[in-house]
Each structure stands twice: as structure tokens, then as C-alpha cells.
Amino acid sequence: MEKKNLDWENMGFSYMQTDKRYVANYKDGKWDDGALIDDANIVMNECAGVLQYSQSVFEGLKAYTTEDGHIVTFRPDLNASRMVDSAKRLEMPPFPEERFVDAVAQVVKANAAYVPPYGSGATLYIRPYMFGINPVIGVKPADEYQFRIFTTPVGPYFKGGAKPITICVSDFDRAAPHGTGHIKAGLNYAMSLHAIVTAHANGFDENMYLDSATRTKVEETGGANFIFVTKDNKVVTPHSSTILPSITRRSIMYVAEHYLGLEVEERDVYFDEVKDFAECGLCGTAAVISPVGKVVDHGKEICFPSGMEKMGPVTQKLYDTLTGIQMGHIEAPEGWIKVIE
Ligand SMILES: *Cc1c(COP(=O)(O)O)cnc(C)c1O
């Protein structure tokens, strides 16, 4: 298979149309067989459920070229099961998990020419999503849904290595108790846009959201979970029913414990103790780990000892081990890597 002639080394993080996408439709109570198609556009009724009441969920994962030339994905079964959870919470029919994993493989294989070569730092981003497509005007779940997966090649999230970022404690809430913070739904992002635009206008890279019930505990940012490292090298992550269970974060906690032999804790993290941590990072598929150098709470600065120049040493080890597993230089735990071809 011949690769497309793209500038792999200098790709940004933006949408580029690729050749094929996967589409399946749900109608009369069942999913059809699904197929790869060429058309990147969707035609739907003006009253489609997704357009009126935002009935939509999504996932995000990547395909990589490993050192020995295979194309692989990382734990797609967890994306499949998380999308089932998201769908159920929005009263949508779950897309079967085995079919999800198979559809990811099909669409990656069909766009193999766009999977960036090993060593370029770029990857093929995979976006599965599902939405209500039939007309809905009275408030109720749609009867018909479309599940799609497209892919787009993306550059490394941080060009020239990850410099620590500065985040601010947000005045806005991301998720309500018993709300939808734990599912991957577009609606959580729609309402976070004002908060992120505001943070950027004030000179910050990201928002730290606190729990909306008490505003004393750390939750997450708009699209990434937190990890903290204590001064005695324990890896701590907030436990909360209103954060999105990041696959990257869950993998990092496993790597910390089983590969690096570190103590790990998933527990309430009070904002008051953030000042005592040695390192802080944001975990998500896009950047794997983005180091945080500074947290600003209404003018009060918390500067982590790891500084503003580079990742802290434990964060760096976690990053190197996880990306080593993804790229195939470090042996992966059973079932983490799905070889596509
Ligand atoms: C997708 C997402 C993450 C990161 O999850 P990964 O599975 O690691 O990509 C974290 N927080 C939110 C709100 C998200 O939507």
C-alpha cells in the first residue's frame, strides 16, 4: 500500500478528509450491516434529533505505525464499552461492542495510506460517533440513529515536545452531580466552550474544574483527566462519578503500578492539597500526557517543583512507558494492542 504524499512531520491537529468512512444505520429497532462509503457529507432532515436536542455521543482513539511496520490501535475495546455507556445515558441504542472494534479496524485498513509512518510523531485519529437522525420535535429520544467513524491524520499534539502549561481554576462548572459528566457527549463540550474561550482570553491554556457540589475537589479539565505525583512519588488521580473515565489515565495508573512499581491512589483530591504535589499532568488520547507547570486560582499561583521547562521526572517516565507500549518498543499488557495489519 502506497502512503499518501503528505508532510507527515509538519501536520497540525485539524480535520483532513480521508478516503473512506464507516456508516451503520439504526431503524425499526435494529442496526443494519454497516458499510464503508466515500461520501464525507451527511444529509439529514432539518428536524433531526441531533440538531434539535443534541442527542449525540462520540469517542476518540488513534492508529499508530509501530517500529516493525504494523498498524495498531490502542485498547479499542474500552472505547467500544465506554460508547455503550454514553449511548445508554442519552437513551440511544448501543452499537454492539464487537462490531465497534471491527468497524474501527475496517476504516483504519481502508485509510491505511493515511496512517503516518513510524517516527513522524503523527498518528491517524479515529472518531466514532452516533446521533439521532430522524425528525424529533416533541422532546423524546429519536427512533433512528446513525453510527459513523471517520479518520484524519494528525500531528503530535505538542510540536517540539510538551512544554508545561498554565491552567486556571474555572468559575464555571463542567458537570453536575448525577448529570452527564461521566459520558462522552458533545453536549458536555458545547457548554465548556465559553469557559475555555474565557480561559484563553485570560491567558491560560486550560481550565481546572472543581466539583460543582462543593467546589473543594479537583475534577478534570474540559477534555483530559488529572494525574498528580506526590513528593514521595505516589501517583494520585481524582476519583469522582462526574469525570469522564479516560482510557489514557486508566492505562497510566496501570503502568505506574505494574511497570514502574509506584504506589497509586484513586481518591478524592481536595484543591487545598494541590499545592503539596510535586508534578501534575493532563491525560487524554490527543496528547497522552500534557505536563502542568502552574495552576492559578484567582490570582494565587501554585507552581509545581517540576517547573515550566519540562515534564516532571515521574510524568516523563509514565509518558515514555505508555508511548513505548503504544509504539511497540515495550511489551504491552495482554489485549492492549490490536494489530490492524
Ligand atoms: C475524551 C475525554 C478525556 C480523555 O479520555 P481518553 O480516553 O484518555 O482519550 C478526558 N475527559 C473528557 C471530558 C473527555 O471527553
What can you see in these coordinates?
- The structure is a single chain.
- By secondary structure, this protein is an alpha+beta fold.
- It contains seven helices and 17 strands.
- Helix content is 22%, strand content 26%.
- The radius of gyration is 20 Å and the shape is globular.
- The termini are close together.
- The mean pLDDT is 96.
- Residues 60, 184, 220, 223-225, 244, 246-249, 283-285 line the site of pyridoxal-5'-phosphate.
What labels would you give this structure?
globular; alpha+beta; binds pyridoxal-5'-phosphate; nine-stranded antiparallel beta sheet; 341 residues; 7 helices; eight-stranded mixed beta sheet
Low-confidence stretches: none
List the ligand species. pyridoxal-5'-phosphate
Q: Which term fits the overall shape?
A: globular
- Count of beta strands: 17
Secondary-structure class: alpha+beta
Distance between the termini: 11 Å
Q: Considering DSSP H and I runs of 4 or more, what fraction of the residues is helical?
A: 10-25%
**Number of continuous helical runs:** 7
What is the mean predicted local confidence, pLDDT? 96
Sketch the topology as an H/E string, one letter per element.
EEEHEEEHHEEEHHEEEHEEEEHE
Strand content: 25-35%
The largest pleated sheet is described as: 9 strands, antiparallel
Q: Mind telling me the C-alpha Rg?
A: 20 Å
